[in-house]
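Suppose a colleague, Dr. K., hands you the sequence of a protein chain of 128 amino acids and asks what its three-dimensional shape might be. Before reaching for any lab equipment, you can write down a predicted structure in token form. Begin with the sequence itself:
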Amino acid sequence: MAIPAFPEVEREAPPTKIQPKRRPGGWNPRPQPRIGLGLGSDDELLMLENRTEIPWTVYHNFHRLGIIDPGELLVFHLYKHGSLNARPVSNEDVVEYLLLALNYSMNQVNIYKRQMSKDVAVYDMSAI
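The predicted structure, expressed as tokens, is then:
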């Protein structure tokens, strides 16, 4: 069986043209958002004040942070997401939970007692 021989053909390279193209990660005329580093800052501080006459146990996302006594001001360094819970410290069977959804703009949280009517007083937790 014979192998046919093909004549070699000289091909010219196509002419090159230099065109500016944007590449990913290259220069961009619009400023790009910066990435924040996970360093400690004042944005992660949350002040909690107890304006009631009873002590409360404080939880962040169901992790116990500690007990806040009457008239005490505590400062916590935590990520402001999830929920903040408070439960009165007592031996009574009645258990009331205060619940507050956290967001990044909160700086201070107060636990206080307010009158709903003459005979009804409730405890509440609010952010400032």
